[in-house]
């Protein structure tokens, strides 16, 4: 019965600071200030709609503090404070200048034991491996390798979830692309939306979230058990004995199981403890959990079939009407001896209702069949698009090395240019130009591939867009002069601060200004400026080129698309610049669009929320 008296997945980190006192000094003085640091995850520690702090960990900590006050006759003054990240609490506890404690979804590891002390375990520590519901059941390592190799993996940095993924990947030689998220709930939501994503989560989070209808699957072959979640505390402050006394106290035994059941429910609590236990050789607890799991997921499937339920509601209504008509007919015949003519009429109406019912059933089957065909076609198109992107990415990677070699050879050839005649010089210039264009195309493809895989490392901070814009404009002065184009930047006003990555913002401006110069006729003007509209700062780049047709506007920001308009100075276009601009801007919480009429130039506008 001991297992029902420990806490399951304590998901917040909490530190108790006692004004520089050791435990014995606190007892001697009779009072102390207590500070609790936590990282919120529902239902373990969270705030309700009016700001009250609730959860398993909150109630368990209150229980511990009451024990300290009663057992040692001291008065504690408690203050709760949220920490920015889960793993930051270790530093809060370790570096605190007062004695500190902490509890959360904390597993005991050798590395962590060097930083803090660990109490007895609260609840079992079980991490379950999950995939999308569409992934077949993974029963062994070979099966695992064949189905999920190359998938993305959602995880939390500096946690045992990340450690479990690393070990799994190393053991079975998996190529997993990690995506960092703040909590278990986000891991489950990402996996439920992406059929090619996996992750480890705590067992109670899995149980809670599948009850909300998320289509995820647990693979019991790869779950990981540890020796339980625990309190942590600052070393060498004398709190060891008080923690031991609490865990062995009647107060803990009386309250712990009630708190867990209040938040997780009786059925889930029993199943979680059973699955986490050691005596499961007959697999009875695993079978019970699978049955409950199937029941929860069946409820989810029922919810997802709302449209079918509505159709069946119509069918049932018609059926009830049919039954009602038949009953009325019988009653009328028996009680009122209605005329034969009226009886025939009622039978005709019943037949019509029956035909309507048959037609509704036929239509339902046809709709279901068409939906299945659409799903198959959609998957085929998605697979073809992925294969195309993968092929382009592979080709781009393979071309990068020979292009760099060609660039080096061209540089060596340039040292001998003084000995060449005009024809040889012209050939060399064309070679140099073609190599530069090919290199630009490959780099843009690789940039786009990085965006799609979300492997770009954005460093979002407060930036004055006008400063970045001015700096970028100055770099295009020579190119504009070569085509006798005037750049009017007088409308750039400073003090337009937004939250962006300045490196990627500059690449956005470079693409837009380069395009404007590329499609502007000689002797024209390119206008660049900033504006503020409501809660957004705008940046615009306006040219006097040929403009953009309505047909071209539809595919303007699509990758590998070249438009009807042609560059005015024999420049070339990769068809990637604007698609990269759109990806960068949207990744930084902005918007980009174009205003243009054919023959009247084009105006590209980028907008970001004001700081």
UniProtKB/TrEMBL annotation:
Ranges in coiled-coil conformation: 343-377
Highest taxon of source: Bacteria
Keywords, comma-separated and alphabetical: ATP-binding, Coiled coil, Kinase, Membrane, Nucleotide-binding, Phosphoprotein, Signal, Transferase, Transmembrane, Transmembrane helix, Two-component regulatory system
Histidine kinase domain boundaries: 394-611
Reaction catalyzed: ATP + protein L-histidine = ADP + protein N-phospho-L-histidine
Residues annotated as signal peptide: 1-20
GO MF, one annotated term: ATP binding
Keyword presence, Cell cycle: no
The protein's Enzyme Commission number: 2.7.13.3
InterPro entries: HATPase_C_sf, HATPase_dom, His_kinase_dom, HisK_dim/P_dom, HisK_dim/P_sf, Sensor_HK_Regulatory, Sig_transdc_His_kin-like_C
Bilayer-spanning residue ranges: 312-333
Name of the protein described by the UniProt record: histidine kinase
Species per Swiss-Prot/TrEMBL record: Marivirga arenosa
